[in-house]
């Protein structure tokens, strides 16, 4: 019998932590999971203030244009009005339901859930700050053979004059009242998504980004195309622009810009990046190695430099995506406790990870950008199609769709696939499977398309933009 209280102690109740705890406990391992008091709830950022509520709000934002576009299809009725309070209340109800689902999954698997903030004392000991039955502060000191840190990330706001007046993506879902004038600062996917969402919900949105183009790291053609479409939808997107200071006045927030111009807005959302959530964990005292912005350094098996301590998910800053954290969790469980009977141990590849950006229109992408492919392979062939979707021939919308394939000329393998358009994430997911299987352009060409769909364009593009190398 082990002299530890638990075999595995998980710090963090987000996607990666919950998955690891649940799957480990199902194998008969004694598992505890601590989720800090005052945080959003089980499920972490994704469930509470990330993927799920953001996608729900994105759905909500699409209805305004859908009602308008329906007139081209013969639907005639007075324009509906938007009730911000109803959306917030319904979202809150759904998130509470999901929190309960996560709690039931953990308890049903036999995981001991502790409501409290866990801090490392040594490689096998944690001190958990809790509340006693009378509401007074208390604590528990517990030991475990292994400790997993899965505390995720948190929004980062740079220090500047007036930074206390801004909000982050954590608070934006419950703004009161609805911001008729919203400033969004940042050019990453979170900034672009919220700019699109609030623009669709009826706010006057100004988005500022210090860089030369939004979505750094994405394919350049995708970046420029999306910027044009967002502007077409009504977002006032300003590049090479930044904030000097923000002051609160009676009529709103007064924002002084670097170019000398001024804005008056009701709220200012800063989506300027996320950093690993490591404050107060005691990493330094135990000697856990950390990288830039505090990210926990791990090896290919998610081990830190301190034996017995592991880390997965956003806290390692490898690839900040919920499905990646889930994949890392399953790989770690198999590594530590063996795979289920009859199954090989799971692996985790960071190549060809598909992702989507829920802007209006959506972005879906998997594989290399054109620039990355040229750097890696030298000779690549690019196929590109831009068109107005069939739906909009009657809707009246001027929205256009971009689809792009990047092919390694020597092997004919499709190494990059990119789309800007409606349901891009839904479409790209299936093509990611083909690319993981090593599909060539010849395979794409031999595949029959579903007509009429936008997705069929990926298997009907025949003329390269860039001719293949001799």
Please state the average pLDDT score.
Answer: 96
Query: How many alpha or pi helices?
Result: 12
The fraction of residues in strands falls at 25-35%
Number of domains: 3
Oligomer: single chain
Output the CATH class name of the largest domain.
Alpha Beta
Q: Which structural class fits the helix and strand makeup?
A: alpha/beta
Spatial separation of the terminal alpha carbons: 68 Å
Q: Report the CATH topology name of the largest domain.
A: FAD/NAD(P)-binding domain
Unreliable stretches covering 5 or more consecutive residues: none
In helices, the fraction of residues equals 25-40%
Number of DSSP-assigned strands: 22
Report the C-alpha radius of gyration, rounded: 24 Å
> What would you give as the CATH superfamily of the largest domain?
FAD/NAD(P)-binding domain
Sheet with most strands: 7 strands, mixed
**Level-2 CATH architecture of the largest domain:** 3-Layer(bba) Sandwich
Shape, principal axes of CA atoms = globular
């Amino acid at each position: 019998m082990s002299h530890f209280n638990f075999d595995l102690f998980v710090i963090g109740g987000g996607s990666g932590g919950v998955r690891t705890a649940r799957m480990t406990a199902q194998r008969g391992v004694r598992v505890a999971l601590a989720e800090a008091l005052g945080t959003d709830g089980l499920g972490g950022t994704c469930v509470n203030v990330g993927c799920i509520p953001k996608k729900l709000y994105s759905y909500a934002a699409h209805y305004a244009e859908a009602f308008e576009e329906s007139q081209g299809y013969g639907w005639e009725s007075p324009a509906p009005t938007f009730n911000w309070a109803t959306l917030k209340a319904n979202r809150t109800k759904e998130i509470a339901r999901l929190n309960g689902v996560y709690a039931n999954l953990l308890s049903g698997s036999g995981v001991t859930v502790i409501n409290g903030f866990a801090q490392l004392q040594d490689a096998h000991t944690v001190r958990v700050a809790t509340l006693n039955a009378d509401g007074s502060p208390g604590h528990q000191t517990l030991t475990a053979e292994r400790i997993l840190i899965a505390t995720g990330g948190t929004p980062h706001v740079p220090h500047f004059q007036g930074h206390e007046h801004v909000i982050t993506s954590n608070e934006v879902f419950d703004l009161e009242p609805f911001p008729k004038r919203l400033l969004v600062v940042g050019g990453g996917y979170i900034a672009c998504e919220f700019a699109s969402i609030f623009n669709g919900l009826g706010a006057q949105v100004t988005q500022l980004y210090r860089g030369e183009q939004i979505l750094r790291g994405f394919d350049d053609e995708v970046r420029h195309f999306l910027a044009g479409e967002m502007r077409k939808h009504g977002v006032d997107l300003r590049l090479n622009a930044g904030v000097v200071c923000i002051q609160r006045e009676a009529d709103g927030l007064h924002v002084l810009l670097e170019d000398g111009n001024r804005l008056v807005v009701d709220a200012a959302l800063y989506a300027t990046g996320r950093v690993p959530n490591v404050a107060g964990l005691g990493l330094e005292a135990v000697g856990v190695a950390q990288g830039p912005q505090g990210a926990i350094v791990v090896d290919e098996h998610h081990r830190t430099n301190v034996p017995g301590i592991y880390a997965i998910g956003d806290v390692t800053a490898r690839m900040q995506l919920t499905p990646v954290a889930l994949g890392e969790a399953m790989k770690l469980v198999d590594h530590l406790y063996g795979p289920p009977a009859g199954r090989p141990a799971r692996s985790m590849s960071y190549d060809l990870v598909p992702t989507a950006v829920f802007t209006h229109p959506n972005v879906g992408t998997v594989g290399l950008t054109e620039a990355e492919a040229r750097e890696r392979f030298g000779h690549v062939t690019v196929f590109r199609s831009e068109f107005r979707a069939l739906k909009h021939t009657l809707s009246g919308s001027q929205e256009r769709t971009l689809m792009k394939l990047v092919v390694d000329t020597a092997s004919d393998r499709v190494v990059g696939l990119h789309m800007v358009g409606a349901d891009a994430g839904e479409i790209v997911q299936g093509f990611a499977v083909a690319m993981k299987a090593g599909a060539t352009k010849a395979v794409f060409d031999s595949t029959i398309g579903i007509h009429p769909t936008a997705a069929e364009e990926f298997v009907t593009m025949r003329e390269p933009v860039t001719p293949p190398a001799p």
